[in-house]
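Lab meeting, item 3. Inverse folding demo.
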């Protein structure tokens, strides 16, 4: 059995190693040997590892190791462990969206507070196998937090490129605290992404953005775990917030492989949701353009998806085609009101995550999703990542947003009488 890295554009095989692109500029796919895997994996095998205390099976990523990185030895696996995130239902969210069977898979419950940990355990483990010393990424915050944590755990140095003044404080604080070298780039995420691609090769830093195919392999486990939680009966829809499009890409690959391995009978439709101020993928898909129409100055309160030139758009488009999926966009108003509903149900998330629920509501209202269909929304990040957005929403301090669900604190005199007046 072998693993092959293959160009998605020209089909050429690229030997294993540190490159992230083919000579022709195309992105690379990890190609698993599905014929030999068909004999080795089963629902039963993956179910038998549930609740295991044995390394590395406690991880919701490495439980599926044959489908993540089948050849990596235990000693190279760097795991916290990640995954095993909960699937929630709540009446409030179902009423708000008008969908009766709505499930929220909370990726904010990962060790550093976002789904990025799933791609990072895979990426850093491969970096360790390749004996890399320094790793790098450009980030709107969560990739940086995750990279910094996993690199320190593995004894590597990390360098993160973040757009100056444009990332949420929770995330910046994590990157600094976990010990990354933090470079604040005078520019936006897309500028940081160009710079890290340009400089990482020359300076021998292993690049760990989702352009790295091993990140995508790890993030497939969101789908593997979700389907296992549904007892191997896929929902009708999977809805995911979309920024740099790594997750959208990973989800299609995961479903393709599950289908080929006969672990599922049907492939759900994937809906990829962008913020309307940062919607290059939406425009490109909607107008069926031959090339990505980049957004010059992306704008949205959901900083995790504030990206104008997503690297993985071609892989993501493949996902949408494979799953008969679609791309939708939602406004910041819709994002923040949806977030308030998710938060108010006790579940909670950061702004970008709420794009999935806002998208579900919009697709229900336009009749694309039926109220009786089973829908899984991916909640990508933790509520504590961006407390400023939450507080400013409830204090009505966000420009151009009028909060439908504001919950404002009140200042009172320290008397029972004053308390009575407030709670009556
Ligand atoms: C990274 C991130 C996204 C966007 O995911 P992509 O794979 O880049 O499309 C969405 N939400 C959160 C919280 C993230 O950290
Ligand atoms: Zn190529």
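The presenter then showed the designed sequence:
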């Amino acid at each position: 059995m072998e693993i092959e890295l293959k160009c998605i554009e020209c089909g050429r095989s690229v030997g294993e190693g540190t490159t992230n692109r083919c000579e022709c500029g195309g992105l690379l796919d990890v190609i698993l040997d599905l014929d030999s895997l068909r004999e080795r994996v089963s629902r039963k095998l993956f179910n038998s590892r549930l609740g295991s205390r044995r390394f590395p099976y406690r991880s919701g990523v490495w439980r599926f190791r044959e489908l993540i990185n089948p050849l990596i030895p235990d000693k190279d696996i760097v795991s916290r462990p990640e995954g095993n995130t909960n699937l929630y239902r709540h009446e409030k969210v179902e009423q708000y969206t008008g969908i009766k069977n709505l499930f929220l898979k909370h990726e904010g419950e990962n060790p550093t507070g976002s789904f990025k940990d799933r791609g990072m355990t895979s990426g850093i483990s491969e970096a360790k196998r390749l004996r890399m010393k320094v790793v790098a990424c450009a980030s709107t915050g969560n990739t940086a937090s995750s990279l910094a944590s996993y690199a320190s755990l593995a004894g590597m140095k990390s360098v993160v490129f973040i757009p100056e003044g444009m990332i949420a404080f929770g995330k910046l604080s994590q990157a600094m605290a976990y010990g990354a070298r933090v470079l604040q780039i005078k520019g936006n995420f897309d500028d940081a992404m160009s710079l890290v691609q340009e400089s990482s090769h020359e300076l021998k830093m292993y690049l760990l953005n989702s352009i790295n195919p091993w990140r995508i392999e790890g993030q497939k486990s969101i789908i593997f775990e979700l389907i296992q939680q549904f007892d191997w009966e896929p929902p009708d829809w999977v809805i995911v917030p979309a920024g740099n499009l790594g997750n959208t890409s990973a989800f299609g690959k995961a479903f393709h492989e599950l289908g080929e391995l006969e672990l599922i009978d049907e492939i759900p439709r994937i809906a990829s949701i962008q913020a309307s101020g940062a919607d290059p993928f939406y425009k490109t898909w909607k107008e069926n353009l031959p090339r990505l129409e980049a957004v010059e100055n992306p704008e949205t309160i959901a900083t995790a998806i504030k990206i104008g030139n997503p690297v993985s758009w071609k892989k993501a488009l493949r996902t949408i085609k494979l799953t008969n999926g679609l791309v939708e966009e939602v406004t910041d108003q819709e994002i923040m009101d949806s977030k308030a509903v998710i938060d108010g149900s006790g579940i909670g998330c950061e702004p970008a995550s709420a794009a999935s629920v806002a998208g579900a509501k919009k697709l229900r209202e336009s009749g694309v999703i039926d109220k009786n269909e089973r829908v899984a929304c991916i909640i990508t990040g933790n509520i504590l990542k961006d407390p400023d957005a939450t507080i400013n929403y409830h204090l009505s301090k966000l420009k151009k947003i009028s909060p439908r669900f504001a919950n404002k604190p009140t200042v009172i005199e320290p008397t029972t009488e004053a308390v009575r007046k407030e709670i009556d």
